[in-house]
Structures are given as structure tokens and as C-alpha cells.
Amino acid sequence: MKRNNLTTALIAGIAGVAGIASVSTAVNLNSDGVGQVLLYPYYTVNGGNNTLISVVNTTDNVKAVKVRFLEGKNSRECLDFNLYLSPYDVWTAALVPTTSTVGGHVGEESVKIITSDNSCLAPNTVMAGQEFLPYGYSNPAPYDELGLDMKRCTEGHFEMIEMGNVFNTASNGNAASAVTHAASGVPANCSVVHNNWLGGAWAANPADGIDSVLDGSGGLFGSAAIVNVPAGTEVSYNADAIQAYSTVPQHSNPGDLFPNVASGNNITSNIFYNGVVVTDTWSSDEVQAVSAVYMHDHIYGEFEITDAFGADTEWVVTFPTKIFYADPFYSLAFLGLAPPVEPFTRGLSYPAAGGPPSGPACEPFAMQRWDREEQQLGGGVLLPSPLPPGEQGPVFCWETNVLEFHDDNDVFGDSLILGSQNNMFVRPGFNNGWAEIAFTQNTNDNVAARTYTGLPVTGFAVQKYVNGTLGGGTTLANYAGLFAHRYSKNIQ
Length: 492
Fold this sequence. Notes:
By secondary structure, the protein is mainly beta. 9% of the residues lie in helices and 35% in strands. A hairpin with a 2-residue loop joins β15 (268-273) and β16.
């Protein structure tokens, strides 16, 4: 979008009075892995997989944390709840496949979260094994035309957002002490949390006993592991850690859509680029600062699909903020602009009653690949399959995508490693080598009018090997590895 001159001038003036923002208080993606917002690029319970989760509080404060699971097609909510972490606490859980018992979806493939951890949760139904729910994409309206079944929730990404530090007040029942673990390893009284929300202090005033988060450091880190017991494989990754996303507390009711990655109050980003820190103040919405730290014009990685090794490779490509640019139900914050909002170029549109569905908001990309000896096939541009109707080139249509590398013997279906239905495949023409994905989308929606090329993206590559009778052996063994994507940036 081209910035409104008056809006830009006002923001510039305010920024000048405040001295812009110091490096320490601008939104940044912390390479050390500790932050205020943790973003986990992928979960799955498909194809025999379970996803194991952990989050750690490195501070001596009690933390109120929003935990939210977002389905992979359009990042609509499947489950969220509040987690209260004691000082130096660790919370763990697992996502496992289940058969839905939710009305209207009985018998469908679904997800259940299970935990034996003692940390306080609200609502406490999560402790008993809470099923994921479809209401984020089926109710309230508008329905996004991307499917109503529970299968949508079986893969996606998730986030944990610090809502503030908890301290004791007489009215909140000394909540900080109540959730703090005693010598036995059990919180003193988790019922205080539930009572505060069930007509108690927090139902009337969520800010009661919630301290500010002025430095935005957060002090949280987390990880996830995708475990396939039948295949005997496990791959794990560290969550992305965002700092300084908000300098005000955002304590909210369990199940509330806020806070989310677009609701922080910081409009300034810091990005390390070509050896220097680039600081920009964004014009239209706070989510732009979060998107800026994820903006990349290229993704790089390796692949291995040699049949003799039983090798497969899949890339997870997640756009963690796309819903706020492409879905009209969520993009209203952008000064009333209708989607798509740059840098995204396609948006969802809700048809009138009886009209045809709009289909997904697909974003184009280009792809090149090489073998290990610098050889390149077919001019380097590859068309993944299957292409949506009307598309002439490669596109990512979902918020969370899985790109499979196939040889000529593979048949398209759910992805072979992650069991993804949000998948597409490419035939690289080589058994092994490396590939790049290129984005040419861009935005200059900042006070300095700098152009950022690319899309806000995160993810990783997974490789799996099957050691059967190779070399005359008789032992069957499976192996897997996970590799964070490598990227380039382009800021002009």
C-alpha cells in the first residue's frame, strides 16, 4: 500500500518526539531463542505422528501465557487456553490423534491435547485431555470456504504469548502464590485461577495483579518434537522467539482471540541485515513490525530422495501472520483496507449467499534446484503439483504448507513423512542437491519508505531414511533429521 501522507507525517512526528525507539525496545527475532512470544512453525498428528510440546520460564516471575493452536489452511483457531508458569517452571504436553466427539463432527479425524504436567491451566478441562474444536472456522461467521471438517485442525502451527507477570493482590486471591510450585512440585492452589475467571477478580478486571512487561524480553523458550512411533523416528526444533512485541500486559479470558501476534503495541522493528541493524517504524498496523522480522526473499535448503536409502524430504513453509493480510475477518485493523494487504498479493473474499466459494489465497513463488555438482535442470523454474485451477505457476495456498520432493516413482497423496494434506510436490530431477524458493512480493509501509522484498515466512526441512537390506544387511531401522531453513533478506 502507498502510505497516507498525513498518517506518515503524524507517525514520524510522534516517533521524533519519543526519540523513535531504542534498539532494546523494537520488535526483534532473538537468535538466542528466548523471548516474549514463541512461535512454533508446525504441528501434526497425521501419518502416525504425535507432536510433543515444551515451554520454559527462565525468570523469577510468574508468567501468564496464552497458548493457541491454529489450523494450517487459514490459521483459524482450533484451541486456546491460559497457562500460568511458576518461576523457573517447565510445562509439557502432547498432541495426539483422536476421533472427534464434537457435535456435528462425531467420528471425524481430530486432535486431543494431553498433559500430566502440574502447572495451572484455565480452563482446567485441558488437564483431562481437551479435544480441538472447529468453531474458529465454522462459527462465528463468516465461514472462510476452506472446509468445515475437524481434519483441518490435524496440522498447523501454534504460538505462546506472554500476557504479563502475575503478582499477589487481596482481590485476586494471591494468585502468584497460588500458582507457584511448592517443594512437592505441585502448585499451591490452581483453583484460585479458575475462580478468578469464573465470576471472580479476573472476570471483572483481567488486569488485577498483572504487572507490565516494559522490557519485552519475556524470558520464555520452547521446543517441539514430532514423534512417529510406528516408524521409529523423532525430529525436534526450537520455537522462534520474538522480543519486545508488546510493552503493555494483555491478560485475557481463556478462549479469547486476544492477545495474538497482531495485538502487540510496538510498531517498530529491528532487523539485522548486511552487518547492521535496520530499524523501521511501520505505518498501518502493529502486526507489520512482527511480519518485518520474518520477511525473506529466498528460502534455501537441501534435499535427499535416493530410493536406495529409502530417503524422503519435505519442507514446511509457514506464513505466521498471513491471516491478518488475506482474511477480511482479521485484516480490518489495516486502516479499513480490504485484503489483500501488502506484502501479500491474494486475499480471501466471502461470497454472497449462494455464490461460489472464493477458494484459498494462493501466493506465487519461483523455485530453482541444483544437484551436488552445480548442475541445473529445466532452466531452474519448477512447477509444483497439483496446481490449483487457473494457476499458471507455483503457488503456496495455505498458511502452513508442506512441499515434498518426489522422484518419478512417487504417487501424490498425503505427504510421506508428516502426513500433511496441505501438501504439494516437486520432482527435482536429481536424487539429491539443494533448492531455493524465491518471493518477489514487497511492501514499503514504513516511515522511511524502505522496500522489504519477500514474505513473512518460517519453517524447516525434514529428511527421513529407511535402512532396510542395503549392503546385504538384515536390520530394519528408520532415521530422520530436521534442519531449520536458511534465508536471505532484501531491504532497500
